[in-house]
Amino acid sequence: MNGGGNGKILILSCGTGEGHNSCAQAIERALSEKGVSCRTLDVLSFKSERAKNRASSVYSAVIRHIPAFFGFVYKLGRVYDRSKLPSPIYSMNASYAGKLYGYLTENAITSVICTHLFAMEAMTAVKRKYGFGKKCYGVLTDYTAIPFYKDTDLDGYFVADKTVGGQLVNCGINGSKIFISGIPVNSKFSLSVCKAEAREILDLPADKKLVAVMAGGAGCGKVIKLVKRLDKKLGDDCAVLVFSGRNDKLKASVERRAEYNERIKVISFTDNVHLYMKACDVLVSKAGGLSCTEAAVAGIPIVHLKAIPGQENANMKKFSHCGMSISTKTVKKAVNAVNYLLDDVQCAQAMVKIQKLFISANSTNAIVNFITEDNADGLFTLSAVYNGGLYFGRDNVQQDYSEAVLA
Questions:
Q1: Alpha helices in 203-240 (DSSP H)
Q2: I need a labelling partner for 384 at 20 to 30 A (CA). Which of 118, 174, 211, 334 fits?
Q3: Three-state SS for 262?
């Protein structure tokens, strides 16, 4: 066994984006349910608390106010990947490898799971510098491989699909280390809760069409513009739920508009996102890898609104190409897409069926079972995919294929 029994598993995440933390929390919950001792830490805390807090605040500021700069950095990373230059990102994360190695040995860690590139680079440095011999895995949380993965050398990589796996191979990673698992999400998103039941739990109106807007991290201005247009263009039988998360500026701006408008409601940070997805009729969201996957597992029609250049473009392309979402570049087109899905119930239902076909709800358990028991059930190595294997979740294909495609 790699990490089960009396072993201790460390999960390393990073606060540059909630998706990495959500992925880590999903894995931690699944491990705990199996009785495995585990703990999640921000990898940058091994550099310093200041570095950890600064990374989170800088990332949030960039994606809210100057997302184009994020896209510029992303493109620079692609240029670096084609070069043979030493990586400044790897050097930064290697700088605290000694402190991380000390924690691993002092706490008798038997396996490490990384849900962020920084963690994967730090653990690569630990393995290279100190000969750390325990298993270490990376979990990619987007439908593309972002730059700098060529700097990493772990025991295994869990990826969304064969496209991501192929990109890692192009970076020089051995295909036998790459497993097609899907992106892990919290099991509560797959709970069997009907729309009426979810609305009753959340005290939401049963007689309204509900539109969820979950793009708070992408910037305040675009969301406000979206809410204004939804309010103007939606029918009287519709209401809008705006999820501000931890974006206080967005919350205050929407609340000012909602003060005299009963059909706009602001939802602060909540642990019940899964229930709101079950309760609503359409979701408008930026295309974060985790948020995409959570929505698909929950089974809600999705309208993606372009926000952050880089990996989110790839996520949008994946979902819209497969018919799992409608991709839009402007607020006007996003609102038109929302109205389309609200009016065409058959189209909305077909989208949800396609989501079930391509997105596995069992990815988290498949990864956890593999790591703790060396059990590859539900996973495909990249070589198996190239030999003609299916590249979406094995567990849901047989039961849903005929219903989803032939209905």
A1: 220-233
A2: 118
A3: coil
